[in-house]
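Re-run requested by the PI after the first attempt was lost when the workstation crashed. Everything re-entered from the original request form. Ligand of interest: magnesium ion.
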Amino acid sequence: MEVKFEKSVHLIKQLPEVGKPEIVLCGRSNVGKSSFINSFFNRTKLAQTSSKPGKTRSLNYYNVDDKIYIVDLPGYGYANVSKTEIIRWKKLIEDYFAEKRNFLVAFHFVDSRIGITKLDFVLNSFLVGNNIPYIIILSKIDKLKMSEKTSIKKIVLQQMENRISPDQIYEYSSTKGNGKKKLLSYYNSLIY
Ligand SMILES: Nc1nc2c(ncn2[C@@H]2O[C@H](COP(=O)(O)OP(=O)(O)O)[C@@H](O)[C@H]2O)c(=O)[nH]1
Ligand SMILES: [Mg+2]
């Protein structure tokens, strides 16, 4: 797979022409989305990772094989964020989802140590409201013991109040590679 950075979008009017199917990466700030891009596509520094949450305020477009876009949405939910910033985030995301883009699927990243938060629920409502199919990816799964993995899946299912089925939950570790094979085969089934 050949992946390259295409553009950063700060305003809705800067979005690329509608055409290529878009896989939307969304979730809390610091959940591991940039690390996912790098590890999933076998690149070391394509997407900037940071231990300091809340850096990315734009939508970042990546072009894969000139076939699809991977869209990295700005994260949310980090500490010390003002109400104004939450409102700005909601507006940008809401406007993006309201655009008639060629949405293929959303990868909603959830930190396996944290589970579903209030803003994850807001995000899920945008996805459901716009009929965008989605999966949940439990990130940083390498941090969990076997027993914790089993319980976080149950917890997430409960937290989502039956909006999702167990086969919509994937696990992933950018550092250890857990879950990559399964996610790759899902990805390939979507694209090829
Ligand atoms: N242990 C572990 N740490 C991770 C993993 N993915 C990301 N991280 C770390 O979590 C932090 C945030 O990652 P980043 O990819 O920048 O998150 P983003 O804000 O969602 O793009 C960084 O310090 C990463 O090294 C993972 O799978 N396992
Ligand atoms: Mg990032």
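Saved to the shared folder this time. The first helix runs from residue 33 to 40.
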